[in-house]
Automatic annotation (TrEMBL):
The keyword Aminoacyl-tRNA synthetase does not apply. The keyword Transmembrane helix applies. This is Trimeric intracellular cation channel family protein. It is a multi-pass membrane protein. Keywords: Cell membrane, Membrane, Transmembrane, Transmembrane helix. GO terms for cellular component: plasma membrane. PANTHER family: INNER MEMBRANE PROTEIN, UPF0126 INNER MEMBRANE PROTEIN YADS-RELATED. It comes from the Bacteria. It comes from Candidatus Desulfovibrio intestinavium. It is found in: Cell membrane. The chain crosses the membrane at residues 6-23, 30-49, 61-81, 112-134, 154-183.
Amino acid sequence: MNIGIWVDWICIGAFAMSGVFAARDRKAELDLFGVVVVAVLTAIGGGTLRDIILQTPVFWLTARDQIYCPILVGVLGFFLTRSRRHHRLDRPVAMLDAVGLAYFTVMGTQKALLLGAAPFIAVLMGLMTGVSGGMMRDAYTGQVPYVMRRNTDIYATTSLLGGVVVVLLPGSLGLWLGGLVCFGLRMAAIRWKVCLPSARW
């Protein structure tokens, strides 16, 4: 099996599980179906929106494993969060979420470039791929999106900077360095609580 498929599954699964854990942290009153919807929205919402805007076939309509994966992870996450020990998974899930953010940012940016998008638009498509699923999750659970909330660790900014690296550097070098920049900044933000200035009103 192609290693790229495994990477897709891992990153989609990581996003799906992070969506479940985020819903848990906000005490969203969801049943099993609701948890699965949250997992699916978080995992594939950004890529779906990107493909619609770029007027290209939505990726999971042709690669159906990429819709099955978050459904299965959502079911698994539902039962995991019912366990008394589920908080032990918080740090690993946060790290995997950072990996997923980096991966989907660079892949979204690259896809837009390959379809002929201008560099600025490609960066926006990478950002959309990385963060829109989480915004859909938060809207679904009645929350202000995490990426817009004050006093939260930077998230969208790391995706934006990773996408900029992808468009500035050629080929695989840009992909690798863009991913590393995005991942590294996200982990640093978690570690040192790096936040953007907040509106005061």
